Amino acid sequence: MKEHLIFNILFKWKYQIASLKAWLSFEKDIKGINSITYVARDADKDWIFGAKVRRLSKFSKLNAKPYFHAKLRNLPQTDAYFFIFPNYFCRAIRHNPFILNRKNIVMYTHQHWTNSYSKTHISWCLNKAHKVICLNSITKKQLIEVGVKKEKIEVIHIASSPETFYPHERKSGAVGFCCAYSDRKNPELIFNIIKNMPEKNFYIIGVLWENFDKYEELSSLANFTYINNADYAEYPKLYNKIDTFISASFLEGGPVPLLEAMLSNCFPIASKTGFCNDIIDHGVNGFLFDAHTNYEEVIEFIRQADLIQTNTRETVLEHSWGNCSQKIDSLFLKD
Questions:
Q1: Chain segment 93-109, per-residue pLDDT in tens
Q2: Which residues are CB-contacts of 141 (< 8 A; sequence separation ≥ 6)?
Q3: Which residues contact residue 239 at a Cβ distance below 8 angstroms, ignoring those fewer than 6 apart?
Q4: How far is Cα 249 from Cα 255, in angstroms, rounded to an integer?
Q5: How far apart are CA 54 and CA 70, in angstroms?
Q6: pLDDT for position 47
Q7: Is the pTM of this model over 0.85?
Q8: Rounded distance, CA 45 to CA 71, Å?
Q9: For the chain, where are the alpha helices, taking DSSP H only?
Q10: Backbone dihedral angles phi then psi of residue 269, each to the nearest 5 degrees
Q11: What is the pLDDT of residue 42?
């Protein structure tokens, strides 16, 4: 009830005004799609969202360009728009009503409700889009449950770059994680795995782990190395330091680092979230576990991973930026 009141009192009227402005422009819907703007914020330029819009627009066969703006105002006039995050689409409608007369595709990575952007708010706006891209089948089901129309939703796994991430021979036995610190990333499980497997070298590639309440104990472990705030250009070389990659999160849309690691021929061990269930064949090209499991199960999987010779890169080559971008092109071109 509370979120319905917040949306109806504080936000819905803004969208109604935007819809009226779009209607009063008397602009006909654009049928043939040639030019596309891939939209993100200025703050995303050096982050994963910025990398996504640059790569997806680069590999598009249409006339596609990225656009970054702090407040998502003054969008360039193009035939269609791609939004890398649902909140951006909501804000862009309010500041650029004319986009309601164009085709809009919105990527939805994972559930992230707030008081301002509640499930009522987001689902209402997503139903104004031409298509909504989910990164996995679990998320599609969740969106339908909160009111997004089933026919608007397409599942397209997010991609990575086979050219950027090159394979290596697994021989060091080292284990790695790639994530920023947050409760969603399951830090207690990560800590217990590292602490209770002293014979293995562990790396965390990420940021904000200094905020972990057990960071001092973690950083004092002889088998642990923290690679803090590394430049993304260094990631391929960093993945080649490790043989086994672990994604322990409670909630993910991807995770993209899982693909990057597998393209680097790291053997993945991942929680059953995001697209992990879709791309990992348990026991063949990786292992899957419940995020609420105990560390002993994951440690056993790490030991088993050392014995498996599967070339994991070969199993995920289809998930390239080129393939992903062309799937998005086809959605724009489809009536």
A1: 999 999 999 999 999 98
A2: none
A3: 165, 168, 176, 178, 245, 260, 261, 264, 266
A4: 9
A5: 16
A6: 82
A7: no
A8: 14
A9: 2-6, 12-24, 48-59, 86-95, 119-126, 137-145, 187-195, 215-220, 235-239, 256-263, 276-279, 295-305, 321-333
A10: -130, 115
A11: 94
CA distance 171 to 196: 21
Amino acid at the residue 1: M
Residue pair 312/285 in contact by the 8 Å Cβ criterion: yes
Q: Which of 48, 56, 50 is nearest to 332 (CA)?
A: 56
Instruction: Supply φ then ψ for residue 163, to 5 degrees.
Output: -75, -35
**Chain centroid to CA 7:** 26
Asked if residue 197 lies in contact with residue 223, where contact means CB atoms within 8 angstroms, the answer is yes
Q: What are phi and psi of 90, to 5 degrees?
A: -60, -50
The Cα–Cα gap between 177 and 180 comes to 10
- Whether a cis peptide bond, with omega within 30° of 0, leads into 162 is no
Q: Cα 169 from chain centroid? A: 27
Q: How far is CA 215 from CA 89, 190, 220, in A?
A: 37, 11, 8
Percentage of residues of the chain with pLDDT beyond 90 = 83
